[in-house]
Design goal:
single chain; about 180 residues; Alpha-Beta Plaits; four-stranded antiparallel beta sheet; 5 helices; globular
Length: about 180
């Protein structure tokens, strides 16, 4: 069995990629209200700051900062991943349970990176905001509704036309295509 080494830094800032088991699913954007509600509920119980986020149909990217004396990001993801399917089912959406009675909506693990400094943070925030364009979901960052980009524009941190308009292919940005 692989043993993952997590960089558990109290009060740390981390970049995460969390993916659905079925990469063809669009449930994250189809059930965005449930996802938002899930995040609010988990943040109420186990606070964290969302520095940047983008929700795509089958995965999400987030930069999250934990409270000063807390390093348990895995517990937060465990709560999010278990609560979201229950909230979706409560809305009348059918999700089949596996043999253990779990909703197998998410991939078991998540990808995490410890943000090292301001430049690293800026790079990951840019990556997050540009991701819908990278996946050819929109041609302008501002056209994707499920992104913290809009908050950055409202606060004057980025211009509405940040990254311009991309026509056609967007190139290879290192994520596997599936």
């Amino acid at each position: 069995m692989v043993h993952y080494r997590r960089n558990l830094i109290p009060g740390g800032t981390f970049f995460f990629t969390v993916t659905l088991a079925d990469r063809r699913s669009k449930i994250l954007v189809e059930q965005i209200a449930c996802l938002r509600s899930t995040f609010r509920e988990v943040r109420r119980r186990r606070p964290f700051t969302i520095d940047a986020i983008v929700v795509l149909p089958d995965h999400l990217h987030i930069v999250m900062t934990l409270p000063r004396k807390d390093s348990d990001f895995s517990g937060r993801w465990r709560h999010i991943k278990s609560l979201f399917p229950r909230n979706v089912v409560a809305q009348g959406v059918t999700i089949k349970r596996n043999q253990r009675g779990e909703y197998p909506l998410w991939q078991r693990r998540f990808w995490e990176h410890t943000v090292r400094d301001e430049a690293d943070l800026a790079n990951h925030v840019d990556y997050i905001h540009y991701n819908p364009v990278k996946h050819s979901l929109v041609s302008r960052v501002s056209d994707w509704p499920f992104s913290s980009f809009h908050r950055y524009v409202r606060h004057g941190l980025l211009p509405e036309d940040w990254a311009g308009v991309v026509e056609g292919g967007t190139g290879d940005f290192g994520e596997p295509t599936s």
